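Protein Record: Sequence and Backbone Structure Tokens
======================================================
Scope: a single protein chain, as residues and as a discrete description of its fold.
Tokens: labelled as protein backbone structure tokens, with as many entries as the chain has residues.
Position: the record begins directly beneath this header, with no further notes in between.
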Amino acid sequence: MIAWERHGDGPRLALQGPGIKTIREMSVGVPRAFWDLRRDLCSFPDGFELLLIVGDAVIGIPRSTRVEVL
């Protein structure tokens, strides 16, 4: 079973890549349009590192992470 974490309102995401054993599902307070833009503009090794601060949680999403909007 894949655990799902909710960190704000936003679409449910599936994350895969280095440092993630299988798939990590979560939602963060970032709209779907952002993830679509990231997908269309950034392909590894190009891209950007993303740090999100939500309450007392800090979430790092490196450019090597594949993000699928569910």
Remarks:
- The chain has a mean pLDDT of 89.
- The beta strands are 4-7, 12-17, 20-28, 50-54, 57-61, 66-69.
- The two ends are 16 Å apart (CA to CA).
